[in-house]
Amino acid sequence: MAFPLRNESNVSGSEVFAGYSSTVGKLARGLLEGISESLGLETGYIDKAMNMESSLQILTANLYPPCPQPELAMGLPPHSDHGLLTILMQNGIGGLQVNHGGKWVNVDPLPNAFLVNTGDHLEIMSNGKYKSVLHRAVVNSKATRMSIPQSIGPSPDTVVAPVEQLLDGENNRAMYLAMKYKDYLELHLSNVLNGKSRLERVKI
């Protein structure tokens, strides 16, 4: 899959990022097809149910310059991402950590590779079968780290709830409230990053 990242003289920066964002969005939709199948659903189930033709995609860029006292600073505090997937491109400088078994584990960047995190809304719609990734960013004293995450979410007006086909009565009841994606985003923006606290607020 080709990614239009080279900025030729006749191509504006906004066009480069628009092309990149579009291509990453297609990659995400392909991944969601595989996730649908892994849940025992039809291949295009998530794509259709989440109205991915009108998917809300948010592209950001993070710069973490060297810090003289990295033990006293944090790049980003622990949090999980809204949306279904976050696809991350980064330079060769480590700094991403994920929480596994209650411990923080370094995720070393691989050359020419994306890192994919599962988000809160994949956890909600799968009723906990997929978990959103609790992660943080740490800084170092020697090198600048850059990362470009793109969050892939449903359309803003899509109501996200546990998929009925994944529920089977009292033994596997819905564990999350139904909520429009845009309302969850408002909840996300109105609170400081604090672990998975936003997701906890929509748990039943």
Task: Give an account of the 3D structure.
- There is one protein chain.
- By secondary structure, this protein is of the alpha+beta class.
- The chain contains five helices and eleven strands.
- The protein has one domain: Sandwich (Jelly Rolls).
- The protein has helices at 13-38, 45-49, 120-125, 181-189, 197-200, and strands at 56-59, 62-64, 76-79, 85-90, 96-100, 103-106, 115-118, 135-137, 145-153, 159-160, 179-180.
- The strands form three sheets. Strands 1, 2, 4, 7 and 9 form a five-stranded antiparallel beta sheet that branches. The protein has a four-stranded antiparallel beta sheet with strand order 3-8-5-6, with no helix packed on it. Strands 10-11 form a two-stranded antiparallel ribbon.
- The protein is globular, with a radius of gyration of 18 Å.
- The model is unreliable at 1-7 (pLDDT under 50).
Q: Secondary-structure map with pairings?
A:
Layout: H1 13-38, H2 45-49, E1 56-59, E2 62-64, E3 76-79, E4 85-90, E5 96-100, E6 103-106, E7 115-118, H3 120-125, E8 135-137, E9 145-153, E10 159-160, E11 179-180, H4 181-189, H5 197-200
Antiparallel strand pairs: 1-9, 2-9, 3-8, 4-7, 4-9, 5-6, 5-8, 10-11
